[in-house]
Write a structure and sequence with these properties.
Layout lengths: L20 H31 L13 H4 L8 H15 L5 H27 L7 H22 L7 E3 L7 E3 L4 H19 L7 H18 L2 H7 L10 H19 L8 H18 L3 H7 L1 H20 L9 H7 L4 H21 L5
Antiparallel strand pairs: 1-2
Length: 361
């Protein structure tokens, strides 16, 4: 919206600043942060008044959570969605279709998560939406988004998968690219969802990954930088730096209230939306595989669940004391803050490794 002010730059030179992507990305971070700060307390009070006993705590999780987490409201992802929506609509170039795709995935996944959280709270169960229905809805949203991305992308990149560390490797997947893109978005959403189990554990890695994709989107969308780095130039993708900046700012605002001891949980409303946001940006920028490195912590958490379930079904034995992985270390006696901070460190290291793929080609 504010981008339109740049059209008046011929009359007012100061308005030319709204053309600069870096300025608008910074403005998006600050705006989303302020929205979360301003509306966060009211949202938390409203959630408490409606939820009563707060988010139902899983009985098969760590026993300490039945005491320490009881009564904390969920659906805190609402404040992040509000911050992202306001900041993106205010600072992004709204004629850019990639921006609308990213918002579509984020808000749609947030709505699916909201329904899931609502059923959990109203029925006082950790079940929520039926797993099959939830998955079908996620796949449908991702399918629409991937098809949309392919339709608006340049023909040379539309259905192709790029490989990090190789400058000229592009696999033409044809129609098979759609299920690959769906896998990236749905996988990212559910990986973040699995990671969201301790105060502050998921949101910081999300912000770290979004921060990396601010840089990636900016470079990929700039032909000069893309040619210098020998990566695929994606016209229009740079505008997603504004969107990713909004994710960072909204995440910072949410962390203020989610820091231990948490005043609110993001719930599926937030975790599915944040994962979907990262997945959609990765698909647009042709960095689907790099997302697996940048968001490596989410991958580790997901793999721990898969290994645990497979091992128990095949051998009757558990590899970990409890899955996802963060609960394993809780059961080993690590303090919650220790688990969270060490996982943040791992997320940061993996994000740097993912960012390095831009140059190592």
């Amino acid at each position: 919206m504010l981008y339109l002010l740049s059209d008046l730059s011929s009359q007012f030179n100061a308005l030319n600043v709204f053309r600069y992507l870096t300025f608008r990305a910074g403005g998006s971070v600050v705006t989303a942060l302020i929205v979360a700060f301003v509306f966060g307390p009211a949202i938390i009070r409203w959630l408490k008044s409606k939820q009563g006993y707060g988010q139902p705590i899983r009985t098969d999780g760590p026993k300490s959570h039945l005491i320490t987490k009881q009564g904390t409201p969920t659906m805190g992802g609402v404040m992040m969605l509000l911050g992202i929506g306001v900041a993106t609509l205010l600072w992004a170039d709204l004629s850019n279709r990639y921006v609308w795709i990213a918002l579509f995935v984020t808000m749609s996944y947030g709505f699916i998560g909201f329904l899931d959280d609502y059923l959990k709270v109203t029925k006082r169960t950790s079940g929520g939406l039926k797993g099959r229905l939830k998955m079908v809805a996620e796949i449908a949203v991702a399918g629409i988004a991937v098809y949309w991305i392919s339709a608006v992308s340049t023909p040379a990149l539309a259905d192709r998968l790029s490989v990090p560390f190789f400058k000229d490797v592009l696999f033409d997947l044809g129609l098979f690219y759609i299920p690959v893109g769906i896998f990236v978005m749905v996988g990212a959403a559910n990986s973040v969802n699995l990671t969201d189990g301790l105060d502050g554990l998921a949101i910081v890695p999300v912000m770290i990954a979004a921060g990396v994709f601010v840089i990636i989107a900016y470079l990929i969308g700039n032909q000069v930088f893309a040619n210098y780095l020998q990566v695929n130039y994606v016209p229009g993708a740079g505008e997603l730096a504004v969107f990713c900046g909004a994710v960072v700012g909204a995440g910072l605002g949410f962390l203020w209230f989610n820091a231990p001891p948490a005043m609110v949980f993001m719930g599926d409303t937030g975790s599915l939306a944040m994962g979907g946001a990262l997945g959609s940006v990765a698909v647009v920028t042709k960095h689907e595989i790099v997302l697996g490195i940048v968001g490596g912590l989410f991958v580790l958490e997901t793999v721990s669940v898969i290994v645990q379930v497979a091992s128990f079904k095949l051998t009757g034995k558990r590899v970990f004391r409890m899955a996802p992985l963060h609960h394993h270390y809780e059961e080993k006696g690590w303090a919650e803050s220790t688990v969270v901070i060490r996982f943040w460190i791992i997320a940061f290291i993996l994000a740097v490794a993912g960012l390095a793929t831009l140059k190592l080609r």
